[in-house]
Design brief:
Distance between the termini: 10 Å
Radius of gyration: 18 Å
CATH topology: Metallo-beta-lactamase, Chain A
Bound molecules: zinc ion
Order of helices and strands: EHEEHEHEHHEEEEEHEHEHEE
CATH superfamily: Ribonuclease Z/Hydroxyacylglutathione hydrolase-like
Shape: globular
Strand content: 15-25%
Largest sheet: 7 strands, mixed
Number of helices: 8
Helix content: 25-40%
Number of domains: 1
CATH architecture: 4-Layer Sandwich
Structural class: alpha/beta
CATH class: Alpha Beta
Length: 287
């Protein structure tokens, strides 16, 4: 599986365009990997995680379209992960060409948010002709559900993020063509203690493990992790056996107020035994 980090920031991005804090000024001065867009991921060339507001810039940066992406997983409908303009750009209103129909797996709560933000003639994304107009087929999923998406086996996991009724999820993904496995975990605080054991019992062990590091080197907050919380989850995942010595561990979803420019960040993370992601980072598993 080829995994590309399209964006690696929280909602406020790095730098925050309306901020002149010491961190944002340092990101601007450093440039390159210190500049981060809102989080989303591309798996191989056919699965996107989260229709975030910076997909357009990511596509331009790659010099490609996402017209042929067949599958999308939505972690949750916060607007840094689900932006109405992404759905508008793939609607018939915008006359897109070459666009394939995308199977879009998301929670019932996320469907409700799309219905509200799109105000599609006061219709619902649950109606077939509305889906056809956006070239999507929705599949409603909830936390702790196993399902298939084309060649991928997916297990949704309940995140500790926002109100429970938002049904925020993390994902375990296996590419059945080569058996490679990936854990994607932005937007969560400390997880219930049985989370990793439950994944182990379901037979999961990860080649690549990514997790929320929104709070940088500050303390965890409900809904997000900082350095200490990140390391505690990695240790718990390791003792449950879903992470082992061959697993690549990567932190992502950084916020401007709590993180260093990339080089300094990479040194600090390396001392802790993991790596920070950056926009455009590509990881191929198995290595
Ligand atoms: Zn987020
Ligand atoms: Zn700032
Ligand atoms: Zn969120």
């Amino acid at each position: 599986m080829r995994i590309e980090f399209l964006g690696t920031a929280a909602a406020d991005a790095c730098p925050d365009p309306f901020c002149e804090c010491e961190y944002c000024e340092a990101f601007r001065k450093a440039g390159g990997k210190s500049i981060r867009m809102r989080s989303s991921m591309l798996l191989n060339d056919n699965l996107i995680i989260d229709l975030g507001p910076d997909l357009l810039v990511a596509a331009n940066r790659r010099g490609t379209s996402f017209a042929k992406v067949r599958y999308t997983l939505q972690t949750h409908p916060h607007n840094d992960h689900a932006d109405p303009t992404t759905m508008y750009m793939r609607s018939d209103d915008c006359l897109p060409e070459g666009l394939v129909t995308m199977t879009y797996a998301l929670s019932p709560a996320a469907v409700d948010v799309w219905d509200h933000v799109m105000e599609d003639h006061h219709r619902s994304f649950r109606e077939a002709d509305v889906q056809a107009r956006h070239h999507i087929e929705i599949v409603e999923i909830t936390p702790w559900q196993a399902f298939s998406l084309g060649p991928y086996e997916v297990q949704s996991i309940k995140a500790s993020h926002a109100q429970p009724e938002l049904q925020a999820m993390l994902f375990a993904i296996r590419d059945t063509r080569d058996g490679s496995t990936f854990f994607y975990g932005t937007d969560t605080g400390p997880l219930p203690s049985d989370t990793w054991a439950r994944l182990a019992d379901l037979g999961w062990r990860f080649d690549l493990f990514t997790l929320d590091h929104t709070r940088g080197f500050r303390s965890d907050l409900p809904g997000h992790l900082g350095e200490n919380g990140f390391m505690a989850e990695v240790a718990a995942a390791r003792s449950a056996g879903v992470i082992d010595t061959t697993t690549q561990v990567i932190a992502t979803h950084f916020a401007h107020h709590s993180v260093f420019p990339h080089e300094q960040l990479a040194e600090r993370c390396a001392a802790n035994g993991y790596e920070p992601a950056y926009d455009g980072m590509v990881v191929t598993i198995p290595r």
